Amino acid sequence: MSEAVQATFNNHQVLFSRIVTDDNGEPAMELHEPETINIKIRETNDIEQEKNSLLEPMQLIGGKLYHVQILCGPDHVYLFMDIHHIICDGTSQNIILHDILRIYEGKTLEQEKISMAECIKNETESRKGEGFQKAREWYLKTFDCSDVDTPLLPDSNLQEP
User: Listing from the earlier edge strand, what are the strands of the sheet with 66-72?
Assistant: First the structure.
């Protein structure tokens, strides 16, 4: 199972992102290359007792934004993933779990048409342009709010992620 988790994470590079601070102390997302995941694998006879010890704090600035553990009980194997919502929303989590299952079943994953990593790179580049600055000023003036980085997107009505 750990190989399926590693392969899935490698297919979704945004999971290796880190939050860093720029020269002004503002947080920013930084993309990292895929890395070997340190998956803790433990055997247990009492899964209920072990579940209480699974939570680990995340170091938001510079640290990994996920934790993965596998607990092997007498009758089952349990996968526990704690992925920060900054890099993984509910739809993304559904995709990740389905991808792990596909690999675990011996299937191959389709390459993403556009990855979150590419979206981040595109947004970073667009923030440097004059159009972004004009849009930012318009939002600040119109809505009297602080920094606005991402345009509002419509909800998706798709049944499958």
Answer: 40-43, 66-72, 77-83
| Alpha helices (runs of H) in the chain, residue ranges in sequence order | 2-11, 47-51, 90-104, 116-126, 130-143
User: What confidence tier does 146 reach under pLDDT thresholds 50, 70, 90?
Assistant: low
The pTM assigned to this predicted structure is: 0.69
The structure tokens 């340190």 sit at 38
Beta pairing partners, 78 = 71
Residue 61 and residue 20 in contact, taking contact as beta carbons nearer than 8 Å: yes
The conformation of residue 27, written as its DSSP 8-state character, comes to E
Return the structure tokens found at 108: 């191959």
Q: Which residue has the tokens 């194997």?
A: 77
- Residue 161 CB neighbour total at 10 angstroms: 12
Q: Closest by alpha carbon to 9, among 91, 125, 88, 119?
A: 88
Structure tokens at 32: 């990292």
* Band of pLDDT at residue 28, cut at 50, 70 and 90: confident
Let me know if 10 is exposed, middle or buried by CB neighbors in 10 A (0-12, 13-18, 19+). Answer: middle
The two three-digit tokens of residue 155, written as one number:
């909800």
